[in-house]
Amino acid sequence: MGIRKRWKLIALGGLLIGIVCWWVIYEVKNQSDPLNKSDAFVYSEDGILYWFELTSRNGKVKGTFYQHVLIEDEDVRDLPHIEEKQSPLTGEFTDTGYEWQTNEGGKIVTYVATLSEENLLIHKQGEEDSKLYRAVNKEKLAEYEMTIHEALQIAIDQNEEKEKSRLRKFFSEFNNVYGYYYTNDDKSLQLLIKVDEANLEGDVTATLLMATKDNHKSYEEKTYELNGITDGHMVEFYTVVDGMQTKLKGDFRTATTGFDLSFWTTNETLFFRAVTEKEMKGIFGE
Q1: What pTM, to 2 d.p., does this model score?
Q2: Strand partners, 39
Q3: Is 91 exposed, middle or buried (0-12, 13-18, 19+ CB in 10 A)?
């Protein structure tokens, strides 16, 4: 082997060794970055679980931002649920830590992070308050996720109890109202709905007394049997008018206030207000 060829091989070997050494140093540096040492950085409080999955390489940051929020509406008809969102992110090292951007619902949000031991102090750009996101492994992250799902189940159970309590209160009041009354301005149409029975399952039987008159004549009275359903929010009644099944549909304000109800003679919604027996004395001959 010639001297020139030998020196070429030595040079090539040195180059390869240099590349390997550079790669080892580069990888060690990347692995030593705190972002690469943890599976996630987690922030949690009542009903909220946020976490970042992050990696850094060559001064660049990539990852995903996860948001799980327990939603409990005031309307108990809407069951509690967990709203889940995730947003990809990209960023870079800064003089003080890291900075990255996410697209959250079409809005670009910038987060600024600084190290706090192995954890991250993170805040949105333009805001002062930082939240401590704790460095965790996959097992610990799974525990956080389990905790918020346990909170969801508790919220669902509590929601069911609230709904049962609301229904008991509603039907107690509903069954104790004497009747629900409507009249137009000139009192040519007067309507009284008296509830015969309503149970917690939502079944309702009632009687409708309708009194009409024209040109100051005496009232003509008709009675209709009503069958219906209600959950304390909506109400539907069914009756037979001139041999045809007719549906009356409406919504409660409250049991002791009354309900808005469609009516077949007016083609509009009428408000039936709750009345006492004393108020109705003399009307319809009662």
Answers
A1: 0.70
A2: none
A3: buried
Amino acid at 208: L
| Beta-carbon contacts of residue 36 (< 8 Å; ≥ 6 apart) | 30, 55, 56
- Can you give the pLDDT of all 286 residues of the chain as single tens digits? 556 555 454 444 444 444 433 333 344 444 567 899 999 999 999 899 999 999 998 889 999 999 999 998 877 677 899 999 999 999 999 988 999 999 988 899 999 999 998 999 999 998 889 999 999 999 999 999 999 999 999 999 999 999 999 999 999 999 999 999 999 988 888 999 999 999 999 999 999 999 888 776 787 889 999 999 999 999 999 999 999 999 999 999 999 999 999 999 888 899 999 999 888 876 655 5
Quick one: 73 exposed, middle or buried, by C-beta within 10 A (0-12, 13-18, 19+)? exposed
**Cβ-contact 273, 260 below 8 angstroms:** no
How far apart are the C-alpha atoms of 13 and 100, rounded to whole Å? 40
